[in-house]
Amino acid sequence: MQRVIVLDNLAQEGLDLLAAAEGVEYEVRIGLKGDELREALSQFDGAICRSGVKITPESLVGNSRLKAIVRAGVGTDNIDKPASTRAGVVVMNTPAGNTLSTAEHAIALMLAMSRNVAPANQGLVEGRWDRKKYMGTQVAGKTLGVVGLGRIGLAVATRAKALEMNILGYDPFMSQERAADLGIELVATVDEMLPDIDYLTVHTPLTDETRNLIDLPQLERIKPGARLVNAARGGIYNEQALIEGLKSGKLAGVALDVYVDEPCTDSPLFGMEGVVCTPHLGASTEEAQTQVAVEAVGLLTDFLLNGQIKNAVNVAALDAKTLASLRGYLDVAYRLGRLAVGLLPSGIASCRLTARGEISGKDTKLLTSAFSCGLLDGVFEEEVNLINAQMLLEDRGIKLTTESQSGMGAFRSSLTAEFESSQGVMHKVVGTVFGESMPRLVALDGYRLEAYLDGCLLIFTHQDVPGIIGGVGNICGEHGVNIAQMAVGRAGDHPGGEAVGILNLDAAPSAEALEAVRQLPAISSAQVIHLPEADELPSWLQG
Ligand SMILES: NC(=O)c1ccc[n+]([C@@H]2O[C@H](COP(=O)([O-])OP(=O)(O)OC[C@H]3O[C@@H](n4cnc5c(N)ncnc54)[C@H](O)[C@@H]3O)[C@@H](O)[C@H]2O)c1
Ligand SMILES: O=C(O)CC[C@@H](O)C(=O)O
């Protein structure tokens, strides 16, 4: 049973879907923080939240169960993404469900601010008929600056055009042509638009570039009497600068839905003339909440039940079809990682994974992650998976590079892993898939062979002389160890040189048997490496 925790208010339609999902059970626990949140998260496989709960690094400490957090909404700034990735937790969001509602809210704030809707209403509530006091301003014919022309920014621009406003836009990821098609005049910097705008609205995420995008220096440049709207994220406008801009008269109005610290119930901006504020209501419509809740539940159940990753913000997308088509090679990559650790048990400093043939056109990042999982499995208390493996490898300073070569070589597809210890000991192994799903080792340190890539492997190097296989086979027989398959490989086509042998054994040989193999004349080294059987594979590899 997959257990899901709902950490913020979620529309009933989403909860109904969770209740109906087979193999899933859920609990709603709102308002958690600190130790309570950490303990709760450790008992669930998936979590759904909005912007209320804060998923901090501390809240994920020691958590080996949680696999995914889905944000029912756009902004994931309340979820620590690096900490989630490190903990192997995929973070997904529902980016489109609340676009129109938020755009409408930005427009509503702009109009309410222009026509003094909030104070005029308050005047009536207090018994005043103040028709002179609340002289407004018309938006038609005015210029609106839109910073951030993504989903919401464009929806705001379209609506503002319908209100007969002129639109100046700024977004480094928008082309002149596309902007012109939408009737937006694109400018090269925010500074450039400031002297020309009557209204400004921002629709970017809060990042290092957008934090304090509008501060005192920008207010110097802005057209006197400008009105500012923020329904994106608190902090894009510097709140202190807004206060000073209003006090000096440089700004005629400010409309905010979002704040630096939320919840925010006490701000010097509240009650100032020209200011209208709402408590983060952009997405608070029945339509938006139903849509994001339904989408969030779909994303989480698809992931927990089928391994499908969509709308992830900390890892690449992974649909069920890609996962199925790659499963055989993910398995080989994982096993080559395990084999690498077996061959270099004292530690690996760097490795290179090369995908050859048909597989080179597939998602090599995923193959690299699977190989990294093989390298690190069992090293940490937490589960290592496709989400966190590469980051954990980087944390430990292990260099891993990936290459793709479209040429096929001897196999339609193969994966080559080369790895080196910090003492300079190197190995090179090549794996492929036989049939649909049979992982095979087809080369070891330049020796061509064909060995199973699972269970117990007895690997020995020897002089290529008669009697070696017989000698090793006799020792196994004497010690009651059954040989499932054997493979020998020589470096070139000529006998008599160095060779390698691999026996796939049904059980691990005793230390005594291994020592007896080592003592055979012409054997130069022998070691036993355990690779996982099908039922020992990590959950993400089990189909
Ligand atoms: N008030 C609410 O309830 C509410 C609801 C939904 C979304 N939001 C917020 O609205 C914002 C926009 O959401 P969206 O769905 O449109 O996101 P989006 O990803 O579709 O668009 C963001 C745009 O910002 C642009 N951008 C990034 N950095 C920029 C920069 N330095 N300067 C200019 N443009 C930059 C990007 O190129 C992108 O086009 C987000 O911060 C989101 O969290 C708020
Ligand atoms: O959950 C909410 O209501 C806030 C939504 C909004 O800030 C978002 O980023 O999607």
From TrEMBL:
Pathway membership: Amino-acid biosynthesis; L-serine biosynthesis; L-serine from 3-phospho-D-glycerate: step 1/3
Ranges of residues in domain ACT: 457-536
GO annotation terms (biological process): L-serine biosynthetic process
Recorded catalytic activity of this chain's protein: (R)-2-hydroxyglutarate + NAD(+) = 2-oxoglutarate + NADH + H(+); (2R)-3-phosphoglycerate + NAD(+) = 3-phosphooxypyruvate + NADH + H(+)
InterPro entries: ACT-like_dom_sf (IPR045865), ACT_dom (IPR002912), ASB_dom_sf (IPR029009), D-2-hydroxyacid_DH (IPR050857), D-isomer_2_OHA_DH_cat_dom (IPR006139), D-isomer_DH_CS1 (IPR029752), D-isomer_DH_NAD-bd (IPR006140), NAD(P)-bd_dom_sf (IPR036291)
GO molecular function: NAD binding; phosphoglycerate dehydrogenase activity
Keywords associated with the record: Amino-acid biosynthesis, NAD, Oxidoreductase, Serine biosynthesis
Matching PROSITE patterns: ACT, D_2_HYDROXYACID_DH_1
Name of the top EC class for this enzyme: oxidoreductase
Enzyme Commission no: 1.1.1.95
Pfam families: 2-Hacid_dh, 2-Hacid_dh_C, ACT, PGDH_inter
Function field: Catalyzes the reversible oxidation of 3-phospho-D-glycerate to 3-phosphonooxypyruvate, the first step of the phosphorylated L-serine biosynthesis pathway. Also catalyzes the reversible oxidation of 2-hydroxyglutarate to 2-oxoglutarate.
Alphabetized NCBIfam families for the sequence: PGDH
PANTHER family associated with the record: D-ISOMER SPECIFIC 2-HYDROXYACID DEHYDROGENASE FAMILY PROTEIN (AFU_ORTHOLOGUE AFUA_6G10090) (PTHR42789)
Family membership noted in the UniProt record: Belongs to the D-isomer specific 2-hydroxyacid dehydrogenase family.
Protein name per Swiss-Prot or TrEMBL: D-3-phosphoglycerate dehydrogenase
Organism whose genome encodes this protein: Adhaeretor mobilis
